[in-house]
Amino acid sequence: MPRKRRHWIPGEGAHIISQFVDRRFFLADDPDRYSLKNAISKAQRRWDWRFLSYALMSSHVHYGVVAGSRNPDPFFRSTHTRFAQHCHKRSEGRTRGPVFADRPTIHHYRRERLSRLVAYQHRNPSEAGVVDRPADSRWTSHRIYLRLDPEPEWLDVEWALSVLGFRDTAAGRRRFDQFVLEVDLDDFVIQPRTEARRAPALRSPPAELEWGLLEKAARDLTGLDPIVPLRSRMPAAVEARWLIARVACNDLGQTYTTAGEALGMTRSAVCNLLRRKVVTPAMARREDALRRQLGSLKTMKTSVPYITA
User: Are 14 and 107 in contact (CB under 8 A)?
Assistant: First the structure.
């Protein structure tokens, strides 16, 4: 079956997302990220699109760009092939075949929305709880915008800041950093496919939920000590948050906003957690065990969320 022809508007913004096969963590450390950025540099001559931003997450990659007139497919074929070679070389022959899942998806954005697109990408690591602030992560282009890290040849920070309405001065970069920290992105996040598939079934208001019991069950299943805050970065705490959000949203009819309020997270942070977290067999077993306990987690009376932060 032939692929559908893709469309873009030269001179307009685009949010491009490249997913790894089976959502595997192919960007596991700095050498992986340096390799991908090097592959981007070598493929630049294959297109005329201009980079605004990037976020190199463990299981997928975000690019913020201004579209050119040339087909982007040759650029991504070159970039993806070079990075796949790097991955197979690092695995010492244990992996073969594709690393990226199909072609990247392209979402169009008007110029006036590009500043929020860049902020969304730069906040990905902090919204996921990996770092406290966007400036603490080298996974995105945020530190490059702040002139804390050198810019690659394919990202012109002065031009990018001007496109977003900021100046490449100390004061302008401080304003940009504050904008990324404070801008409201709750209505900006792309909904994952799982929520889109379940949307028709959620036409009636969600049932009241005893969030405290859900937290206790998640803590028991993950072995998270009661004295450890749920917002901790410990792996058990991250998995407990994932279990709570996953079951609450997918099985108990809760919205991302409601789950975020209960967990002390933003809606976009809940969305990012559910989209990016790689589900291991052990996590799947714990999720199934939590589902078997759902009968005691629903209540007919109004219940106030009291999950500990």
Answer: yes
Instruction: Write down the pLDDT at residue 48.
Output: 95
- Give the pLDDT score at 45: 93
Q: How far apart are CA 206 and CA 298, in angstroms?
A: 10
- Which letter, b or e, does each residue of 241-276 get, where b requires 16 or more Cβ atoms within 10 Å of its Cβ? bbbbbbbbbbebbbebebbbbbbebbbbbbbbbbbb
Gap between the Cα atoms of 118 and 132, Å rounded = 18
**H/E element holding 259?**
helix 256-263
pTM of the predicted model, to two decimals?
Answer: 0.62
- Please report how many Cα atoms fall inside a 13 Å half-sphere around the Cα of residue 97, on the Cβ side: 7
Residue 64's nearest CA partner among 56, 74, 72, 54 is 54
Task: Identify the helix (H) or strand (E) that includes residue 56.
Answer: strand 50-56
Rounded-to-integer distance, Cα 122 and Cα 55, Å: 7
Residue length of the chain: 309
Q: Rounded to an integer, what distance in angstroms lies between the CA atom of residue 222 and that of residue 286?
A: 8
We find that the CATH architecture of domain 13-182 is: 2-Layer Sandwich (3.30)
Sequence ranges of the chain with CATH classification 1.10.1750.10: 193-296
CATH 3.30.70.1290 range(s) for the chain read: 13-182
Cα Rg of the chain, angstroms: 21
Q: What is the mean pLDDT of each run of 10 residues along the chain (309 residues)?
A: 68 94 88 95 95 94 95 95 93 83 89 92 88 92 96 95 96 96 75 37 53 89 90 88 86 82 84 72 84 62 39
State the DSSP H helix or E strand holding residue 64, giving kind and residue range, or none if neither. Answer: strand 60-66
Which residues fall within 8 angstroms of residue 200, CB to CB, at 6 or more apart? none
Quote the CATH superfamily of domain 193-296: DnaA protein, C-terminal DNA-binding domain (1.10.1750.10)
